[in-house]
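Let us work through a complete example step by step.
Step 1: write down the sequence.
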Amino acid sequence: MNEYINLTAENIESEHICCAIGDPKHQAGVDRKKKWIKSKLSDGHVFRKLNARGKTFIEYEPIETAWVPISGKNYEYIYCLWVAGSFKGKGIGGELLEYAIADSKEKGMSGICTLVSKKKKPFLGEKKFFEHYGFAVVDEIGEYQLLALSFDDSEAPKFCDNARKMKIDSEDFTVYYSTECPYVEYEVGELSEYAEENGIAINFIKIDTLEKAKNAPCVFNNWANFYKGEFVSNTILNANSFKKLIG
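Step 2: predict the structure and record it as tokens.
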């Protein structure tokens, strides 16, 4: 039987957070991620992971306080559900999701939702996996979709109007990011260094408050790329992937 752990203020410093395990270059990102989680625990933030050394976890919290441009009432929002490597195919993803669903019902929530895309994209959940558990599309922006599993007849969540813009005024390559993901910190530094060395203008806009997250000008989970004023992707970039993208 699989054993799971929920992060708390008491155990978070001694527990790993699954992503970037044992990679020194991402330690600063891990530290900031832990700090962010600690600040969100009072909002009802849940980070549940397999009690093992692996990337196997689910992370969610009430939509009212979730750092995403999605509005709604009394729904949980799943930031991330990840099962990687040798842990795949063992039912762990299902157990994590079933826990979140049961936990949401026990808390008297009206449902639970998450961000996916019509075709699989990095850092987003598998649409078919969630549909297997009864999730259905309740809103969409282009190829991005908001899936929800409703427990009652309450109004479903939806993307905020500002997120539908998918445009900004700046022509420069622009990255919106937050410390929700431990990989982000290092990649911001790497991209900044590459841009400076090559005389490329890159703007970095940090989403560091709930208000900024709710007012993001695009679909946003923890990273969003714009080029020439247009939304390009949600993929976290390093120097090599940036070169390919603008090439």
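Step 3: interpret the result. The chain has two domains: 4-159, 162-246.
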